[in-house]
Design a protein that fits this description.
Elements: H1 9-21, H2 23-35, E1 38-41, E2 45-48, H3 51-58, E3 64-65, H4 72-80, H5 90-99, H6 106-129, E4 134-135, H7 136-152, H8 160-171, H9 183-206, H10 212-218, H11 223-237, H12 239-254, H13 268-279, E5 285-289, E6 293-295, E7 298-300, E8 305-308, H14 310-313, H15 345-366, E9 368-375, E10 384-391
Parallel strand pairs: 2-8
Antiparallel strand pairs: 1-2, 3-5, 4-10, 5-8, 6-7, 9-10
The protein binds protoporphyrin IX containing FE.
Protoporphyrin IX containing FE binds at residues 58, 66, 85-86, 97, 232-233, 236-237, 240-241, 244, 276, 281-282, 285, 310, 334-336, 340, 342-344, 347-348.
Protein name: Cytochrome P450
Pfam family, one: p450
Biased composition (Basic and acidic residues): 397-410
Length: 418
Amino acid sequence: MRALAGADPGSRWESRLIRSAHPVVARVVDAAVSGRAVVRVPGVGVLVADPAVARTVLTDPDRFAKNGPGSSGALWTPVLGERVLLNMEGHEHHALRRSLSDLFSSRVVREVCDAAAGPLVQAAAASLRRGEDVDVVRLAREVSSAAIGVVVGLDRDTPPAVLLRASDAIESMVSWRTRSFDDAAVARARSALAVVQDAAESAHAARASDTVMGRLARQGVSLDDARSLAAALFLTGTGTVSCALPRIAGQLADAGLLTPGGPSSCDVDDVVAEGLRMTTPSLATLRRCVRATELGGVRMGADERVVVLLWWATRRDGGFEPGRPATGDLRHLWFGAGSHFCLGAPLALAELRAMTSMLLDVAGEEGLVVSSRRAARRVLVPRYAELTVRTQGVGEPGERHGHGTGDGRPLHPASRSA
Ligand code: HEM
């Protein structure tokens, strides 16, 4: 029904990334949902791989909550505090979301993106035009952390490595099995987040109208809320975007769309939307069943766990096809649905648009090939450890004018694949 492996090369690479990140879980989940899209797996919870049922769960907080005992939100409360959106429900959540409605207005998104992505994207384009290899993983990591750096008010001179180290440190603390943090883990997470929260505190105190945290202060958002929010934005906004871009680049290469002339027929917004559907970087999200209920034919008891398998729910026949609209239950499902719908979606889209446009522009002029790629092993968010591209005319004689790596084989003899 919803098998992990698809027939096309882009789907096969996506499956490989999922299996490499979660070798055991991916097999268990794939087997469980291959017969029924809503199924109970003892010890794990009720798995949902159907887009309509996924949407039902995400848009019904009275039956399926993100807070409370054993929820994913509760995991973060000791680290981030009580008020970080992702551990809230009901009136308080709604009120905080409303107070943040301008956080990522189109003006703010443009300013953040210009400041953060602009120089890095231009430098990458120049490298490609000089015939050099560009690691898209590195580019996306730097852009996404620079963007969050601007949002939280980090000093512009702070090297990207500082935030990247903090992001990696936190991610390494969480796996599918993590239900709570012990005191030592809470202390480690807080110390990793200090760089972000201290920056947010200074920006909040300065109350400048040209910083995100300054504007929040002027709107009356408290210092505690601003500190917590900065950490939440950092946690949610770096790994997702940095994993998405290389996976979208991989899809473009596998579909043969990084050749001169190929990309011109694609609208960049369509490419990003279809790329996000295909890659769905937030693999799954959790809810707690609030009271006994029925879901997709499965009876559930109070406090049972629902695992909404977003990546599985967004599969469909035919693989990556920019321009094919994802409507109905699929619409934007990669950003969730309902009251917890991704707060940072406008910023994520702008960052991805900036980087994808650059790749499509260079590919339109000279063609791009994937010169090497490698799946990351045993990571929380499935991703490439490396995915380098270069212009088509560059490389050893036998590789000239090659056509990406549609079958997953690297073009460069020295490159490794998972
Ligand atoms: C491609 C990139 C991204 C993807 C795929 C993504 C996906 C998601 C999903 C699926 C949810 C809902 C989770 C649930 O319902 O349990 C979510 C929530 C959230 N996202 Fe994103 N996200 C991305 C980028 C970002 C960025 C860049 C930021 C911030 C700068 C951000 C901030 C948030 C926040 C704060 C929430 C929690 C909202 C709430 O609970 O009310 N995300 N995201």
